[in-house]
Amino acid sequence: MTEQEIKRLVSEVVDSLSGEMTLNLALKLTDAVKQKADEMGVKAVVAVSNAAGNPVSVQCMNDAYIASYDIAVNKAYTVAALKMPTSALKSLAAPGGELYGIQFTNGGKIVIFGGGVPLYDKHGTLLGGLGVSGGTEGEDTDLAEYGGKVFSTLL
User: Fold this and answer.
1) pTM of the model
2) Which of 88, 74, 19 has the alpha carbon at shortest distance from 51?
3) What is the CATH number of domain 20-154?
4) Which of 4, 29, 113, 116 is disulfide-compatible with 75, CB 3.0–4.6 A?
């Protein structure tokens, strides 16, 4: 085993034990979601936040909508802040819902439609959030849920 291989293995072990969203982990997740988006024909922006809702990685696929940048970042923030998928928040924030009007709080950063999922470690600790924007709400939701499944395999 070469010194470079040993360093890579040690880095992967440290990342998996750190209990936080690392750049390495966020980039692996982002790459997987972008690949799936490309297969679906969606030009997405993919954002990964840490547990505090702060961006760790934001990547824009070629020709993605400009507006998708803020939406993806805010979806990642929303799921970290509220510890629920944005798709679940949709009905809660509808008129008459328990959280009606929540999208007007937190400086307008709360997103109330699909495309965001919280990211937990194997112990149920929130590590961050994933936000995807660029397709239809259904496509964004599918990509985010796919990313959530991929994330669990990366840990």
Assistant:
1) 0.89
2) 19
3) 3.30.450.150
4) 116
